[in-house]
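Thread title: Can someone regenerate the structure for this chain?

I was given the following input by a collaborator and told the matching structure tokens would be attached. They weren't. Posting the sequence so someone can regenerate them.
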Amino acid sequence: MITGAHIVIHSRDAEADRAFFRDVLGYRHVDAGNGWLIFALPPAEVAVHPTGGEPAQELFLMCDDLDATLAELAAKGVPAGPVTEAGWGVRTTITLPGGGPLHLYQPRHTTAHDL
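Best answer:
Regenerated them for you:
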């Protein structure tokens, strides 16, 4: 029935953000026409959390070693926010060239993407 998920990032500078996913993160992509790049993502999972506020969605990229990933990103000129501890993992935020935040974390929970 459902064959995949398509995530949309709304950006003030879509060209720069596309270049970031292509050149910095090295994600494979297809050109859907006129430079409209659509990127293949690593395996994904979805979680549903309760909220006392407005319903919202967030995008977190996952890694196996946050320190190593941050070092690799820093070598490519990508700054990161402070690393914070959470019971479910260690997390930070990087800022896309278009100004939007992108969450990054190393999970401590059992992951579902190898099912």
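The chain has one domain: 14-43+57-107.
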